[in-house]
C-alpha cells in the first residue's frame, strides 16, 4: 500500500517540476525579449537624436557660411560690414 503512494508522490513531484521549469523558461524568455525590445528602441532614439543633431549642425554650418560669403578682408572687410550695419541702423 505504501508503494503506490510513494509512486504517486514521485509522479506528482516530477509533473510539478516539469510545469514549473516550463513556466520559468517562458518567463525568462519574455524578460529577455522585453529587454531586447527596450535596447532596440533606445538605439532607435539614439540614432534619431544623432541624425537630428547632425542636421542641425549642417544647418548651422550652412547659415554660418552664408553669412560670410562677402569674403572678409582683414583690413577693409570689417569696415564695409560696419558701414553696412550703420546704414541699417540709420
What does this structure look like?
The chain has 2 helices and no strands. It has 90 residues and is mainly α.
- Portion of residues in beta strands equals under 5%
Low-confidence stretches: none
Number of helices: 2
The overall pLDDT average reads 82
Number of domains: 1
Largest sheet features: none
Rg calculated over all Cα atoms: 36 Å
Structural class by SSE content: mainly alpha
Helix proportion:
over 70%
The number of E-state strands comes to: 0
> Looking at the structure, what is the overall shape?
rod-shaped
Distance between the termini: 114 Å
SSE order in H/E notation?
A: HH
Topology:
Layout: H1 2-67, H2 77-89
Features:
mainly alpha; single chain
Short description:
With 90 residues, the protein is mostly helical.
Amino acid at each position: 500500500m505504501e508503494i503506490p503512494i510513494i509512486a504517486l508522490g514521485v509522479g506528482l513531484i516530477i509533473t510539478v517540476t516539469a510545469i514549473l521549469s516550463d513556466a520559468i523558461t517562458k518567463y525568462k524568455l519574455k524578460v529577455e525579449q522585453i529587454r531586447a525590445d527596450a535596447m532596440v528602441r533606445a538605439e532607435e532614439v539614439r540614432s534619431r537624436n544623432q541624425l537630428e543633431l547632425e542636421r542641425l549642425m549642417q544647418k548651422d554650418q550652412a547659415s554660418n557660411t552664408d553669412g560670410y560669403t562677402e569674403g572678409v578682408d582683414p583690413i577693409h572687410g570689417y569696415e564695409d560690414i560696419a558701414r553696412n550695419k550703420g546704414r541699417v541702423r540709420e
